[in-house]
Design goal:
By secondary structure, the chain is α/β, with parallel strands linked by helices. It is built from 12 helices and 8 strands. Helix 2 packs across helix 8.
């Protein structure tokens, strides 16, 4: 049975306060919710990014679990290597070799990697694909704030069409990014992983339930979480849960899971809202409401959101 809110509130705090992530940042919300989803000991890896630089400012750390920082491109390879080392020690122990002192013989260790969209959609995709194909047992969580926020808000392949970033600036010639974002969750489902999902920080029950499933499954699992960035999205910090919910209600970021190849919606809005309700509060899309060129871009974005939503409904048997 999934944990209820009272049970989650009694889970040991594995990411403490005192870190230096921005007010309203979605990343610590997501990380805490994910780490609440298991009572087993957890080993975590993080590649370079906002989460890493803001939670481990030397000589301090906000992590209450074993944690390793690695390069931008190899979060999945590193957590897979740690998992392989653990399995090797367990195999030797079964033949009589004592376990190292740092491994509890009665514990069932879980392994999780946290990385941003830059370190997942782009730079780290080869590492993630390889670790998945090899069948390592770990959960990979993409903290998707839709740009390279840590290095100055540059576009990534997760940045939506029309988004203003420092490398896709909105001006008189180009109204923001010209391409649609990559559908990475579908890419991971195409790896025939046992479990893949999308979620948001604004629906804690959806996210913690999916993390519980992912931790319990034997094999590689992946959760892509939309993680609002008030600085990069030019958004009021207190709007983080609300804007993530609007992403789901407009179907710009649908909530679903793929378990053993079976696609299933986990949230279906009673009334699908127009994408303008999601775009308008965000400064990164402000230019799309100024002139006819912006209106044309919004229309393209709405058509794409409708197309992807209908595609998802068909995959989930909801059509």
């Amino acid at each position: 049975m999934p944990k209820n809110l009272k049970q989650l509130s009694h889970t040991p705090l594995r990411l403490t306060g005192g870190h230096r992530l921005c007010p309203g940042c979605g990343e610590p919300i997501v990380v805490r919710q994910v780490l609440m989803a298991t009572d087993d000991p957890v080993i975590a890896a993080s590649c370079t990014g906002c989460l890493e630089v803001s939670t481990t400012i030397f000589p301090y750390t906000a992590w209450n679990i074993p944690w390793i920082h690695i390069a931008f491109e190899n979060a999945a390879a590193t957590i897979a290597g740690i998992e392989a080392m653990y399995k090797a020690h367990k195999a030797r122990a079964a033949k009589g070799t004592p376990l190292p002192d740092y491994i509890d013989p009665d514990a069932d260790y879980k392994f999780v990697a946290f990385a941003g969209d830059g370190g997942t959609y782009d730079i780290g995709f080869q590492s993630l694909s390889g670790a998945t194909e090899r069948g390592h047992q770990f959960l990979y969580v993409c903290l998707n704030n839709e740009a390279y926020m840590n290095t100055g808000i540059q576009r990534s392949s997760a940045t939506p069409m029309g988004g203003h970033t420092t490398t896709s600036p909105a001006g008189s010639v180009i109204p923001g990014k010209q391409q649609h974002q990559k559908d990475l969750t579908a890419c991971m489902a195409a790896h025939d992983m046992p479990y893949v999902a999308q979620s948001i920080p604004g629906r804690w029950r959806d996210l913690t339930r999916k993390a519980e499933k992912a931790f319990a499954i034997d094999g590689p699992t992946f959760i892509n979480v939309l993680t609002p960035c008030p600085l990069g999205w030019r958004l009021a910090p207190e709007m983080t849960p609300e804007i993530s919910q609007l992403a789901a209600d407009t179907c710009m970021w649908p909530l679903y899971e793929v378990e053993d190849g079976q696609w299933k919606l986990t949230y279906k809005p009673k009334e699908k809202k127009p994408i303008e309700e999601y775009l308008e509060p965000q400064g990164r899309f402000r230019h799309l409401f100024r002139d006819e060129k912006g209106a044309e871009m919004r229309q393209k974005m709405q058509e794409w959101a409708d197309y992807k939503w209908n595609q998802l409904l068909e995959r989930c048997g909801e059509q």
